[in-house]
Amino acid sequence: MDERDPRKPRHQDHDLLPDAKKEVQGMMKGGMDHPSTKPVLTGAAVGAIVGGLLPVVTWPLGLAAGAGYMLYKRLRP
């Protein structure tokens, strides 16, 4: 059988990086009108606040983690 057989189940995260790249490019082109921009920015803000409150994690790490988590949840609900 061919690996691209539509009947063969695929792992959900197989195309995560290309999907994320496409989504970020769409967000950059669409700006605030893109449906993923506001949730990802909200996640980044929450992550930065939590990162600022925690003693070991800094706000830039929290910002990246929050934005990354929300982008992942937009791609793989």
Order of SSEs: HHH
Tell me about the biggest sheet? none
Structural class: mainly alpha
Q: Total helix count?
A: 3
Structure notes:
- This protein has 77 residues and is mostly helical.
- The protein is 64% helix and 0% strand.
- It contains three helices and no strands.
- The chain has helices at 16-30, 37-53, 59-75.
- The two termini are 30 Å apart.
Summarize the structure.
The chain is mainly α and 77 residues long. Helix content is 64%, strand content 0%. The chain is globular and about 50 Å long.
How would you describe this structure in keywords?
single chain, 3 helices, 77 residues, mainly alpha
Give me the secondary-structure topology.
Layout: H1 16-30, H2 37-53, H3 59-75
